[in-house]
Amino acid sequence: MINFRKAAFSFSLILFSLFVAAQNEEGQRKDIGSLKKSLSENFLVGVAVNASQVAGNDARAMRLVRRHFNSIVAEDCMKSENIHPEEDRYDFQEADRFVEFGEKNNMFIVGHALIWHSQLAKWFCVDDENNLVSPEILKKRMRHHIETLVKRYKGRIHGWDVVNEAIEENGDFRQSPFYQILGEEYIALAFQYAHEADPDVELYYNDYNMYNSNRRERVVQVVKNLQQRGIRIDAVGMQAHWGISYPNINDVEESIKAFAETGVKVMITEFDLTVLPIVNIGANISDREEYEESLNPYPTELPPAIEAKWNERIEAFFNLFIKHKKVISRVTIWGVTDGDSWKNNWPIERRTDYPLLFNRMYQPKVATQKLINRKE
Ligand code: GLA
After folding, report:
1. Is residue 354 within 8 Å of residue 313, measured between CB atoms?
2. Are 45 and 325 in contact (CB under 8 A)?
3. Helix axes 366-373, 304-323, angle to 10 degrees
4. Which of 39, 47, 79, 174 has the fewest CB atoms found within 10 Å of its own CB?
5. Active-site residues: which are they?
């Protein structure tokens, strides 16, 4: 009897502590708030996740993703070199997991990227002797690749980056193998194949340095051309790999306006804000530079003055996005915490950058917390 009472007492004590712990956690959750809630009236708030995170190797990062974001994009696993490494072999494992995660958490899921010259499967545009294939063969391969991916995730992926980075800094079409074989027609074909595979899915054109007026003008022309031909395009994605000293915010605004004027939505698709010395503006991932200590000035921590500048810029950019919320449908951050960012290794390897909304301790930065605390 006495034992029973003791046991009952300990049991109630345990229940009580669990109750208090739950209260605290709930309380903390309330204090921390959520980006997706505070920004929900404006646009979707997305984040790029990598395969290792989706596989469950970083539970803390995934908690941030679930709490703060209502859209995800696959950082790498849907690029052709990964998902379609050989002509007759697809590898869907990571992409399937990514889509399942998004579905489980009711997220707007973005597929990235169907046709892109970079991280391109080796076989895609060439024959056994490494010569470019004929237009007919490339069309067949593009159709097969696009159909297979889009149909597999039909009704589950909500939007696709159909063509990525087709335009150069000077406004010319990039001399990618796709362009060399098919001319600019490859863009229209990619959109057409994607639409035929899933008539309900949104389709996007995505590129970097979209504030640049040459690229802006050419993108507007590409969009109008698709529209005139009755080919579906829903949005233009501005990658937004920017820094604390560039680009000029007015140039960004000009581009938002110009793209919106065509009637499509605008998306900020790969937002990050580097604090490191600039050796290469852009996102052409084959461009690489040599490491020098002077180019890695903050290996252990960020000086307060630089941090303040970073926070200011984040605020300024988000104010701009909110100002244009009628035309901006999504803002996606390119990674969860600073430690995850590609900017630590590009264009120079092994630097320490601080470009994302959460730091290496999984904590929101000052500007992030301000965004979280915003009242609509
Ligand atoms: C480009 C691509 C992304 C990614 C970044 C760098 O912006 O669109 O998929 O590769 O470069 O990580």
Report:
1. no
2. no
3. 30
4. 174
5. 165, 270
Is 342 close to ligand 1, i.e. is its CB under 6 Å away?
yes
* Torsion angle of the four alpha carbons 260, 264, 265, 269, in this order, in degrees rounded to the nearest 10: -100
283 alpha carbon – ligand 1 mean position (Å): 7
Neighbours of 158 (CB within 10 A): 17
- Could you read off the pLDDT of 126-148 as tens digits, one per residue? 999 999 999 999 999 999 999 99
Residue 254: how many other CB atoms lie within 10 Å:
14
> The whole model's pTM is what?
0.91
The atom of ligand 1 lying closest to the CA of 112 is 9
Q: Is the CB of 211 under 6 A from ligand 1?
A: no
Distances (CA, A) of 169 to 2, 252, 321: 82, 15, 23
DSSP codes joined into one string, 26-80: HHHHHHH--HHHHTTTT-EEEEEE-HHHHTTS-HHHHHHHHHH-SEEEESSTTSH
How many other CB atoms sit within 10 Å of the CB of residue 144?
14
The length of the chain is 376
> 19 pLDDT band (50/70/90 cuts)?
very low
Residue with tokens 């169907």: 114
